[in-house]
């Protein structure tokens, strides 16, 4: 044991320069990413209002969260709806459109890549959807439905619990072709042409077989990285929803785990409870990631 | 005109299907963007028409003029907001590119105790959204005494994990070990190797890091960390102006267009570099 430690220490000393390189980033990364996760897990077992010292309460926050907080259950349901609908839809849209675009000539390819990617980097521009789906007759959708006589009075798209989630999902989907999309575009461009020629000789007859047997396995590393980025953002839906449907939304119909977290963290200052919400979300995200990574290994 | 490159195993029916789907997708993505541009040039009476007109009839620059008037009458000189955003964006991006590249170089090309642990933790951090650490981050900032300072926005941006990940993957695949060994035999110092050999090779990757970091910081409102009006950012100030109710609808449209132009332009200029970098981003099993 002692010789092992001595050996490790001599290794560390020998690689001094490497630690100089990783040191600054790693220290900041620890302070602003690793430490907060640990603090969050710790706080989730306490009562803490930022004025008095945290008080240990065991599993009480989690028990309250899962067994008596009805609004949290709505939030969980909505978050899972977003994760299960917009998440996969966005992922497949990224993949399918990247695949289509990759067949085009370089100039057209660059233009379409920009077109699909732009909404995800344009910040608050998604608020244009509040005009498209505006609740009065000046909203584009209401205007046309009224004009053509399909509806008799304007629909409150972002206020009516019936329409709130589907309409929000459309907007989220619109702005979700981000990093994953670029990763897929890049992955497709990196595939060796000779792979397809060899495939044709081996009896690949159409583009669907080519996609499943050649293209997807060849870009598996990109598929896995894209999945990570898509899952992370699909569980983190919240801030955009608040800007669309307000906070709190009618009957909490647009409430997500993130908005629940904002409610307890930024408004009620029940930090222990908020930390329990954050910790639950953290665990859910990481577990889902592991499951999906396992599934993606089976492609092809 | 031939739109796509020639390939075997393509049927005309499949082509038609794919182009239809692609066209529908492109229309869905593009229409709202066109509305943003079109609305920015609509006179106020065209913004409130029934039935609504999708595209502008009598384009005008009035919305931009109104915006300019509102800007020049703001309580704090508007240049202050511009300066704040430029400062935060520049300092945050510069620090991020340098620190992430240095760390990525050591992780990609050196073997040392702890390197695997660091990289695994970085990958793990990509698997959850930063929202879950918002509360402890506030506590950290207040313990550091950084609440209501630029540092609260700038310094965490230096250690963004996506940048380190992309840079490390790129160096793994694009920087040949033999080149580094040759330089070492010639007696080059590690910092010289990093700065003179590695950094020029990974230019596409640091351009990508610049873009990603820029996009995040350019849109930063300062969040929970910045309270003083004179430290507030450009997006915050423009959003305040845009949220002035119905009468500001035209101004809001102009603001939306202005805020969109900058990140989109930056991306257009560097698109090729970004795509090259993303190509090396794959996860190994």
Please summarize what this structure is:
The complex is a heterodimer of chains A (300) and B (285). With 300 residues, chain A is an all-alpha fold. Chain A has 15 helices and two strands.
How would you describe the overall organization of this protein?
The complex is a heterodimer of chains A (300) and B (285). Chain A is an all-alpha fold and 300 residues long. Chain A has a single domain, classed as Orthogonal Bundle (MetI-like fold), CATH 1.10.3720. Chain A has 15 helices and two strands. In chain A, helix 2 packs across helix 15 (271-296) and helix 12 packs antiparallel against helix 15. The longest helix of chain A is centred in the N-terminal third of the chain and has 33 residues, at 70-102. Chain A is flat, with a radius of gyration of 24 Å. Helix content of chain B is 69%, strand content 0%. Chain B is built from 13 helices and no strands. Chain B folds into two domains: 12-67, no CATH class; 71-279, MetI-like fold, CATH 1.10.3720. The model of chain B has no long low-confidence stretch (mean pLDDT 85). With 285 residues, chain B is mainly α. Chain B has helices at 12-40, 44-47, 62-72, 78-109, 115-125, 134-144, 151-158, 161-174, 177-185, 190-201, 203-218, 234-242, 249-279. In chain B, helix 9 packs antiparallel against helix 10 (190-201) and helix 11 packs antiparallel against helix 13 (249-279). At the A-B interface, helix 1, helix 2, helix 4, helix 5 and helix 6 of A face helix 1, helix 4, helix 5, helix 6 and helix 7 of B.
């Amino acid at each position: 044991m002692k010789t092992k430690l001595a050996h490790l220490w001599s290794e560390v000393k020998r690689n001094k320069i490497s630690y100089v390189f990783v040191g600054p980033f790693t220290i900041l990364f620890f302070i602003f990413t690793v430490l907060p996760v640990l603090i969050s897990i710790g706080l989730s077992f306490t009562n803490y209002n930022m004025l008095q010292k945290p008080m240990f309460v065991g599993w009480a926050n989690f028990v309250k969260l899962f067994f008596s907080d009805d609004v949290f259950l709505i939030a969980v349901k909505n978050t899972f709806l977003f994760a299960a609908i917009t998440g996969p839809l966005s992922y497949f849209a990224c993949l399918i459109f990247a695949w289509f675009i990759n067949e085009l000539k370089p100039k057209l390819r660059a233009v379409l890549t920009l077109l699909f990617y732009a909404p995800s980097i344009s910040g608050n521009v998604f608020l244009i959807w509040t005009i498209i789906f505006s609740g009065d007759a000046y909203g584009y959708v209401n205007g046309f439905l009224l004009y053509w006589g399909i509806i008799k009075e304007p629909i409150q798209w972002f206020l009516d619990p019936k329409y709130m989630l589907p309409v929000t999902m459309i907007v989220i989907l619109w702005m979700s072709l981000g990093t994953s999309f670029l990763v897929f575009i890049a992955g497709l461009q990196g595939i060796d042409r000779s792979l397809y020629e060899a495939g044709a000789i081996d009896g690949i007859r159409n583009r669907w077989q080519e996609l499943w047997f050649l293209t997807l396995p060849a870009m598996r590393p990109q598929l896995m990285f894209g999945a990570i980025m898509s899952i992370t953002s699909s569980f983190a839906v919240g801030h955009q929803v608040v800007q669309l449907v307000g906070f709190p939304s009618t009957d909490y119909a647009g409430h997500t785990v993130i908005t629940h977290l904002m409610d307890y963290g930024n408004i009620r200052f029940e930090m222990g409870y908020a930390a329990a919400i954050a910790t639950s979300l953290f665990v859910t995200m990481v577990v889902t990631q592991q499951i999906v990574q396992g599934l993606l290994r089976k492609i092809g | 005109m031939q739109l796509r490159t020639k390939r075997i195993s393509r049927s005309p029916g499949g082509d038609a299907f794919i182009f239809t789907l692609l066209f529908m997708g492109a229309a869905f993505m593009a229409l709202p963007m066109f509305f943003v541009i079109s609305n920015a040039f609509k006179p106020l009476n065209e913004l409130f028409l029934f039935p609504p007109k999708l595209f502008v009839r009598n384009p005008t620059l009035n919305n931009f003029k109104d915006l300019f008037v509102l800007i020049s009458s703001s309580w704090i000189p508007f240049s202050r907001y511009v300066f704040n955003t430029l400062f935060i964006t520049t300092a945050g991006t510069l620090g991020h590119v340098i620190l992430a590249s240095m760390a990525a170089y050591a992780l990609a090309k050196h073997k040392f105790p702890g390197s695997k642990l660091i990289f695994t933790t970085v990958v793990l951090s990509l698997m959850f959204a930063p929202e879950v650490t918002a509360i402890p981050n506030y506590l950290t900032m207040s313990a550091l005494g950084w609440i209501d300072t630029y540092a609260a926005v700038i310094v965490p941006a230096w250690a963004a994990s996506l940048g380190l990940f992309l840079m490390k993957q790129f160096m793994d695949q694009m920087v040949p070990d033999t080149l580094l060994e040759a330089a070492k035999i010639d007696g080059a110092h590690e910092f010289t190797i990093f700065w003179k050999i590695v950094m020029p090779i990974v230019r596409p990757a640091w351009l990508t890091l610049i873009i990603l970091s820029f996009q995040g910081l350019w849109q930063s409102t300062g969040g929970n960390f910045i309270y003083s009006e004179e430290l507030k950012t450009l997006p915050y100030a423009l959003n305040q102006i845009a949220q002035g109710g119905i009468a500001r609808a035209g101004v809001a449209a102009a603001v939306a267009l202005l805020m969109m132009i900058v990140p989109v332009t930056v991306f257009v200029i560097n698109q090729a570099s970004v795509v090259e970098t993303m190509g090396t981003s794959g996860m190994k099993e």
